[in-house]
Amino acid sequence: QLIERGGNEQQKRIELHKLGAMVAFAEALTCRRRVLLGYFGEERDGDCGNCDICLNPPEMYDATEDAQKVLSCVYRLRQGFGMKYVIDVLRGSSAERIRKLGHDRLSTWGIGAHLGDGAWSSIIRQLIHRGYLMQDVESYSVLRLLPAARPLLRGEIRLQLARPRLRDRPASGRRETVPAPERALFDQLRAVRKQLADELGVPPYIVFGDATLMHMASLRPDSEARMLEVNGVGRVKLERFGRAFLDCIRAWEHAS
Q1: Where are the alpha helices (DSSP H) in 1-134?
Q2: Taking the alpha carbons of 70, 141, 44, 115 in that order, is the dihedral positive or negative?
């Protein structure tokens, strides 16, 4: 509230960024010394071994896929948005701003609906602390990729992160049970997605997220023009994968 009362917009941005950094430090699941050094632009190869996080380490998990989702989303948003907006796109929000900017057609829209806001915030903060992302304080704290993000995005390395201690509910309306009339088609679309992903050697979400397949099963597009109306389907994805999914839908319609 004190920050918001200020009249200087630039100063308010700086102070809000500092507040966010303090919250990130308080909620850190990464060695606190690394967090502090990172805030001042310095790096430490290993953990300090002395802070509360090091002495009572959190549960770790293979976060490679979650990290790739975040980094890919930041990249596809052209590194021009802050943490909250990135999370909204990941979780498949249908907010007016997202629809107006066409970001509900990005391949990363809705691919993170399995986690809540708090969990994604924790993952993004860990990626900042680990040197994969930075918040540009001079540009409204937008997220930007750092050089270390490239090999992680390409799948050349694996990444272990602390499992978020928050237990959020899944995003509303994104991973709910698929209606019975659409379930059979949804399952067939997932099978097509898996086959394409296996052929490319990539995780299934790289082809399409579940939220996109749900919308596809509901809309049942019968042409490329209609396929472009599906949230998460752009022209590039249409050219690469559209035919396979259209054939699947047509075969399902014929069998029904």
Answers
A1: 9-26, 32-39, 52-55, 64-76, 83-90, 96-100, 117-129
A2: negative
Q: Is 58 left (phi over 0), alpha (psi -120 to 50) or beta?
A: beta
Cα–Cα distance between 99 and 102 in angstroms, integer?
5
pLDDT, one tens digit per residue, over 182-214 is: 788 898 999 999 999 888 887 888 888 888 898
Q: Give the C-alpha separation, 21 to 18, whole Å.
A: 5
The number of beta carbons lying within 10 Å of the beta carbon of residue 46 is 9
Q: What are phi and psi of 243, to 5 degrees?
A: -60, -45
Instruction: Please report, as a single letter, which amino acid is at residue 169.
Output: R
pTM for this predicted structure: 0.63
Q: Which residues contact 55 (CB under 8 A, 6 or more apart)?
A: 49
Amino acid sitting at position 63: A
Residue in this structure with the two tokens 């200087």, named with its chain if needed: 8
What secondary structure, in 3-state letters, does 160-227 show? EEECCCCCCCCCCCCCCCCCHHHHHHHHHHHHHHHHHHHHHCCCHHHHCCHHHHHHHHHHCCCCHHHH
DSSP annotation string for 13-44 = HHHHHHHHHHHHHHT--S-HHHHHHHHTT---
pLDDT value of position 53: 84
